[in-house]
Structures are given as structure tokens and as C-alpha cells.
Amino acid sequence: MQTVTLSFFRFESWLDRIWAFVMMGLARPGMARVPGIGFWKLCGSGVGEGFTPLPNTAVYAILATWPDEETAKEQTANAKMFKRYQARATEHWTVFLQTTSARGHWTGVEPFAPQTNATPGPLAALTRATIKPSVAMQFWRRVPDISDVIGNDPNVAFKIGIGEVPWFHQVTFSIWPDTKSMTAFARADGPHARAIRAVREGNWFSEELYARFAVVGDAGSWGGCSPLTGLERP
User: Which of 79, 113, 92, 98 is nearest to 7 (CA)?
Assistant: First the structure.
């Protein structure tokens, strides 16, 4: 059963931040050689709630797919490339996911394999889009309002904006206690709903992918604890 991981790394010193930035290019050959790894992406992040055009030089992420949960846990803990990131980071956290639904493409492929026997409990939402350069300014004018809304939502357990290329290749990722709370946010009238309508009406994206996941576990800490603390897990 395919397992998806998102690993986050926080770097404090400027030397380590520069190292992490350089590794966005240099880590690619090593990542491709990690045993069992399937689809993978190296990502930077945004400041604040993450849904901003300003880069956060302290936080980087690795998204990857694996053939099963055992391989995912083994390699994210012990593979050489992941160990190099862990050694430099002041804090790191990995969340383990199983896809419940996915539609769209990421760099021309469908990376996530939905499971029919999804585990009940907390869930995560991921949106990935390639923004057309001609409408990038319009898109980013919408984002601060969306960031404020999701940041103030009492139900969201974790939220961040990451991306492969600043301003044009963007990923939003959030974790919710249940489907009801996530759906309520998505459907509520406000900046998020208005932005979705603008995207559809203006055809702002040249490629997009939407996926939901069951959260099946985590390792490490973020902000001194697990973001899943307090959520009911199977």
C-alpha cells in the first residue's frame, strides 16, 4: 500500500540555511538513489502561515512516495540524504499519509495512488499548482487574505505553503481533525472561496493537482511537539 511522506526541516544558522538552499539542486542525484523511493520533490517554504510569496529561508521540505509504510519509516529515518538533512536541522518532523483521493497532475504525472480502505481519523489536504506567469500578480494578491483565514481557523492542526519554484510552483498543505471541519472551511464564503472562483473563471493554472490523505502517523517534532497532539488517531 503506497505511503506518502512530507518531511519538514528547520534550520537556524545562516550557514545551514545556505546549505539547505544549495541542496535544492545538489541533493537531486542522492534523492534519486534512496532505496524504495518513488515520486519525490524538494521544496522551500513561505513565511508566516506559509501561504505567502515571501520565502522562509529557515524551513525546507521533502515530499516522497514509498511502496509501503515500513519502507517509508525506514528510509525517512535512516537513508543517507534524510540523515544529512536531519544532522543540519535544529528540528525535523515527518508525517505519514495514505491517499484517499487525488485528481490532476504534478509535472505531468499522477504521483498518488488512492486507497479504497482508508484509515479513519485526521486527514490532510494538498493542493499543487503551476501558476501562469501572466496572472501571478493577481494570484498573490489573493493569498494574504486566505492565509489569515486559515491561520485563524481553530480546527486546522497544521498548515504550510511550500513550493519547488518560488511564485510559480506552489503547494498548500494542511491537516484537519476530520472531513467535516475541512469541508466547512473549503465551502465557507470568504477569501478562499472567492479565490477558487477566480482561478476557475480566469484559468490561472497551467497544471494543478488536488489530493486528500488519511494521516496514519508521524515522527519527530515541530515547534517542540507533534502537530498531531490532541487529534484522535486510530
Answer: 92
**Residue with grid cell 545556505, as numbered in its chain:** 18
Domains belonging to the chain, first-starting first, are 3-220 (3.30.70.100)
- Strand bridging mode 205-220 / 123-131: antiparallel
In Å, what is the CA distance from 178 to each residue of 114, 174, 189? 18, 12, 20
**34-63 exposure pattern, b = at least 16 Cβ within 10 A, e = fewer:** beebbbbbbbbbbbebbbbbeebbbbbbbb
Cβ–Cβ contacts within 10 Å for residue 135, how many? 15
Q: What does the pLDDT profile of the chain (234 residues) look like in tens digits?
A: 999 999 999 999 999 999 999 999 999 999 999 999 999 999 999 876 555 667 899 999 999 999 999 999 999 999 999 999 999 999 999 999 999 999 999 999 999 999 876 666 899 999 888 777 666 666 666 555 555 545 555 678 898 989 887 666 788 899 998 888 877 766 655 445 555 555 555 566 768 899 999 999 999 999 999 999 978 655
CA-to-CA dists, residue 170 to 19, 108, 117, 130, 136, angstroms: 22, 15, 29, 7, 11
Q: What is the pTM of this model?
A: 0.87
The runs of H, that is alpha helices, within the chain are 14-26, 28-32, 69-78, 80-88, 136-152, 179-187, 191-202
